């Protein structure tokens, strides 16, 4: 990694410690009062450090109280540790794990680069600047990664996040969101073994519009206390509980279709969710009203429409949800 650092210029005060005895040399280098500029090939922005401390030892490098800038983005209280070679105490973490702690203000250019680096879909491009406080980041190639901390968006909501992910698994232990329009407490756990989803509070599209640059995936208001979780007894299916109300919803489905709902009320118990909806628009079809039951007991959720008016005609039927596809059988 050191070969990727170029144009390094600046100063620091260093101390070399060789160990307690010549028969057992264990060198350690401590550098304080850092003040330097540099380029790092993995980051397309100049780096400037105005203060901080670095410690090099045989197995690790650690940074404390670093403050400075990356391009036009500012950071402070940056703490960093990377294991260079596994030792007994580091075996559980892995020899290449990186852990960061920091506060910072991140501007559009740096956030756009991060989004591209981590393949964030364009629909989820967030507004800037982002303010991070008490942020803790853990990263290890092909292993579990994590983020925990508070995030504020200028003229937008405040978020508290506790997330970890790895291939095939996403665990959102906490996603709390609050501003003048919304107040949400939520969580999500998804893996091949099953899923859990919890939502409590109020979420309005004004909040989402303040978060995302191009809000193309949803509008309206959702309120209630609702949860879904995998059935621990059966190998397939989900169990639901709680109630949820939505108004003036405009949703973009996975296949790209738009679904508009004037009003919806969900009431869940066990694997069944009763739905009462009015004025639904999908493709060139319009339903008003609609009463249905959603069955989560199977591997593919099924919606039994018991009462519906499709363009003024009775149109009960069965809707099957299969990944990105919707199959509609009108009887």
Describe this entry's structure for a reader:
This protein is mostly beta strands and 331 residues long. Helix content is 5%, strand content 65%. The protein is built from two helices and 21 strands. The protein has a 21-stranded antiparallel sheet that branches. The radius of gyration is 26 Å and the shape is elongated. The N and C termini lie far apart (64 Å). Mean pLDDT is 84; it is low at 86-94.
Helical fraction equals: under 10%
The number of helical elements comes to 2
Ends apart, CA distance between termini: 64 Å
- Whole-number mean pLDDT: 84
Judging from the principal axes of the Cα atoms, what is the shape?
Answer: elongated
What proportion strand? over 45%
Strands, total number: 21
**Helix-and-strand structural type:** mainly beta
Low-confidence stretches: 86-94
Q: What string, H for helix and E for strand, traces the elements in order?
A: EEEEEEHEEEEEEHEEEEEEEEE
Biggest sheet overview: 21 strands, antiparallel
Radius of gyration: 26 Å
């Amino acid at each position: 990694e050191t070969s990727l650092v170029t144009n390094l210029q600046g100063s620091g005060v260093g101390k070399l410690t060789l160990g307690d005895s010549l028969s057992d040399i264990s060198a350690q280098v401590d550098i304080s009062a850092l003040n330097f500029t540099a380029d790092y090939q993995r980051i397309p922005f100049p780096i400037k450090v105005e203060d901080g401390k670095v410690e090099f030892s045989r197995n690790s490098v650690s940074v404390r109280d670093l403050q400075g800038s990356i391009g036009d983005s500012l950071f402070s209280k940056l703490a960093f540790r990377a294991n260079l070679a596994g030792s007994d105490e580091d075996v559980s973490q892995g020899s290449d794990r990186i852990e960061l702690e920091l506060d910072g203000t991140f501007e559009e250019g740096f956030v756009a680069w991060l989004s591209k680096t981590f393949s964030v879909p364009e629909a989820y491009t967030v507004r800037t600047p982002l303010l991070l406080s008490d942020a803790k980041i853990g990263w290890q190639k092909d292993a579990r990664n994590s983020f925990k901390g508070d995030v504020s968006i200028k003229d937008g909501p405040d978020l508290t996040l506790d997330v970890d992910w790895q291939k095939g698994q996403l665990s959102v232990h906490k996603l709390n969101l609050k501003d003048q329009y919304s107040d949400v407490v939520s969580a999500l756990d998804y893996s091949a073994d099953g899923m859990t989803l919890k939502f409590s509070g109020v979420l309005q599209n004004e909040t989402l519009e303040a978060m995302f640059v191009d809000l193309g995936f949803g509008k309206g208001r959702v309120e209630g206390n609702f949860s879904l979780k995998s059935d621990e007894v059966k190998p397939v299916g989900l169990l639901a509980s709680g109630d949820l109300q939505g108004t003036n919803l405009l949703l973009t489905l996975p296949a790209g279709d738009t679904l508009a709902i004037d009003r919806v009320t969900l009431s869940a118990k066990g694997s069944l969710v009763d739905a009462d909806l009015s004025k639904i628009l999908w493709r060139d079809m319009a339903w008003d009203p609609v009463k249905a039951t959603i069955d989560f007991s199977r591997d593919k959720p099924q919606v039994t429409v018991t009462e519906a008016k499709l363009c003024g005609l009775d149109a009960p039927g069965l809707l099957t949800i299969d990944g990105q596809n919707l199959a509609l059988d009108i009887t």
